[in-house]
Design goal:
It is a single chain. With about 70 residues, this protein is mostly helical. It has a domain of about 45 residues. The protein has three helices and no strands. Helix 1 packs across helix 3. The longest helix is centred in the C-terminal third of the chain and has 16 residues.
Amino acid sequence: MNDFSQSHLLYWDASYEIVLALKQVYADVDVDNVGLNQLLQCIVALPNFADDPALANEGILNEILREWYEEVNL
């Protein structure tokens, strides 16, 4: 298993890296049932997430959710 270290801090502009971390940490989550509020909580709870949660917006969260869905289902 690939662990994300502190040298791989996550920021909103690194959506694919966030998706990889979500995929690893929340492997058992059904992405089809994740809403934007839950997604925000999951991202902020990632151990190496270092950005300001207040910077999140619907566009960023939708992009991350779409990428996560594609990564898991395609």
